[in-house]
Structure formats: C-alpha cells, structure tokens
Amino acid sequence: MLNSFVRPMLLALAVVGTATAALAAPPPKMGETAKGKALVDAKGMTLYTFAKDSDGKSACNGPCATNWPPLMADAGAKPEAGYTIVTRDDGSKQWAYKGKPLYTWVKDSKPGDITGDGFLNGAWHIAAP
C-alpha cells in the first residue's frame, strides 16, 4: 500500500526537479534595442528591472511574475562582475544586475523588442549596462 503511494510521489518530485532545472538561465549578456545597448537573456530577449524592487529583493511575485518572468539562475551559477543572484520569496534563485533583479516581459515577441519599457507608469525599465 505504501509503495503505491510513494512511487507516484517520487516520480512527481523528479518531474518538478527537472522542470525547475530547465527554467534556469545562463547569465545575461549584451544586446541591442531601438534604445541602444541592453541586457538580454540567452534568446536575445530584452531584460527589465522593476522600480518597486529593493536591492537584492524582488517585489514581483504571483501574477506579476507570470507577466514578468524572472530570469532564473541555476543553484550553482557563478556571477561575474556586476551580476549577483538573489533569492526569491519561494526560495528560487534569480539573476540581478547591480543588485536589481532581472525579468523578461511576456509581450515582447522577438529579440530587440522593448514593449515593456515604461510600463506601469514607468515602474519597468530596460536593464542597461
């Protein structure tokens, strides 16, 4: 009886662990937008910062993080100059630049898009070097 309960739970945990690892991203890199140089993710998508975040702490959780997906960091990621890794409310790790957590925007559809810049009365900004 216990075996029939334990096996599905172990499988579910293995799937969740795999999914979490797949969401982690390499460190940001430099890209170009219509407004000049910006930090971008591995796919070339523009990264943003949120004015309501405090240094080293994300204020974007729940529905906010659905629209502004955090740039997740692998547990073993090694930040380079200017970059840090912050711990989110759920314990996951997120890339930050100069202490500011980094996000993508769901409405950007291709590399170089900057449709999130200035969103929410200017609270969202392109992450610039």
| 3D shape | globular
Largest sheet: 3 strands, antiparallel
Terminal CA distance: 57 Å
How many β-strand runs? 7
Number of spatially distinct domains? 1
In DSSP terms (H or I, runs of 4 or more residues), the helix count works out at 3
Mean pLDDT, nearest integer? 85
- The percentage of residues in β strands lies in 15-25%
Q: What is the alpha-carbon Rg in Å?
A: 17 Å
The percentage helix is: 10-25%
Structural class: alpha+beta
**What is the H-and-E element order?**
HEEEHEEEHE
Contiguous runs where pLDDT drops below 50 for at least 5 residues:
5-22
Keywords: Signal
Pfam family, one: Lipoprotein_15
Organism: Chelatococcus reniformis
InterPro entries: Lipoprotein_repeat, UCP029720
SSE inventory with pairings:
Elements: H1 2-23, E1 29-33, E2 36-40, E3 48-50, H2 63-67, E4 83-87, E5 93-97, E6 100-101, H3 119-122, E7 124-126
